[in-house]
Amino acid sequence: MDKPDVESISGLSPAISIEQKSTSKNPRSTVGTVTEIYDYLRLLFARVGRPFCYSCGKEITSQTTSQIVDTIMGLPAGSRIIIYAPVVRGRKGEYKKELASFLRSGYVRGRVDGINYELTEPIELDKNKKHDIDVIIDRLVVKDGIEKRLADSLETADNLAGGIIKVEVIDGEELLFSKELACIDCGVSYPEMSPRMFSFNNPYGACNTCSGLGVKMYFDPDLIVADKSLSIREGAVVPWAKRTSVFFFQMIDAFARHYKFSLRTPFKKLPEKLQKIILYGSGEDKIKFYYEKDDQRRYIFQEKFEGVIGNLERRYKETESEYIRHEIEKFMNIRDCPECKGSRLKR
Question: So what's the pLDDT on residue 23?
């Protein structure tokens, strides 16, 4: 680099100062973990963070019965409310058994797809359409002295609907409450917020796909077919270039005959679909392979073609040889984890 415009700068304390020789080779170490700043960040997010649903983006809240009572008692005096237990939310089915069960349990009214019904009357539902079923728990007028009855009704709705309570204000808005740390729309739930949830070095917080490393090794097609101007016969597919088995060449000949292409055609001139089959396999398409033994007899069998990458993946998982694993890793590259996008944490 060019010489800086100043000889020295004094009086500026460094924000972060790490001695170079003390840094760790551990892939789990970051500037945040080495300086222990990350410990404070985890504590900050766990204690004052606001959780949001990773599916729909809505804020997730949990409220106790007393908090819900306080919210409802804060409505204008004289407000008429109906407390519902939303037992079915956007699911297909006829729900005859469930409706009969609610009736036996002493509930006499419900709301199905926005229409109020007596549970004693026959309710016909299309099993192929999604339905919303709310059981009516209680009707109340907001005024002093109803706190005990209101709390009991809320507990009943909570037990029936598994933590979700719906309160309709007549001629007003509809309120949704959740007693669990869960999204009332998607059902996504989180455990109680704790610092370990925000640690990529802890199983409770680390992404399951990359184990908290943020990157994932994958087989890179550009390393497997390094020179696309070569044909398969000339060694375009690098992992095949050193193969000497007679059976292997018989298999490749059968593969070329099945897909009607020449092994001497440059790889880049092969149809894109065929290139993908060579790399990733034939899927459900079975190929008639053969091999000839020393007795000149030809043995024929049908099998799916696993592809170059499929073969490498299988061998990489099955081998106990460090040498073979090292050789296979030459065709692998690193990219951000597809699940956590490099953030290292669970969704």
Answer: 58
Whole-number pLDDT of residue 19: 72
Q: For residues 221 and 314, is the Cβ–Cβ distance under 8 A?
A: no
pLDDT tens digits, one per residue of 74-95:
888 999 999 999 888 878 888 8
Q: Which distant-in-sequence residues (6+ apart) come within 8 Å of 289 by Cβ?
A: 250, 251, 254, 255, 300, 301, 302, 303
Say what the alpha-carbon torsion angle 243, 247, 253, 257 is, to the nearest 10 degrees.
-140
> In the structure encoding, which two tokens stand for residue 7, read together?
């000889």
Q: Are 87 and 98 in contact (CB under 8 A)?
A: yes
Integer-rounded Cα Rg, in Å, for the chain is 32
3-state SS assignment for residue 136: strand
Quote the tokens at residue 321: 């040889």
Please tell me the number of Cα atoms within 13 Å of 265 on its side-chain side.
12
pLDDT recorded at residue 40: 93
- Chain-centroid distance, C-alpha 328: 28
Answer yes or no: are the C-beta atoms of 93 and 132 closer than 8 Å. Answer: no
Per-residue pLDDT at 41 = 94
Backbone phi and psi for residue 108, each to the nearest 5 degrees, phi listed first: -110, -15
The DSSP-derived string for 255-324 is: HHHHHT--TTSBGGGS-HHHHHHHHH--TT-EEEEEEE-TTS-EEEEEEE--HHHHHHHHHHHH---HHH
Q: Which residues of the chain have pLDDT under 50?
A: none
The answer to whether 167 touches 83, Cβ cutoff 8 Å, is yes
Hey, what domains does the chain have and what are their CATH numbers? 65-178 (3.30.190.20), 219-335 (1.10.8.280)
137-164 residues labelled b (16+ CB within 10 A) or e (exposed): bbebebeeebeeebeebbebbbebbebb
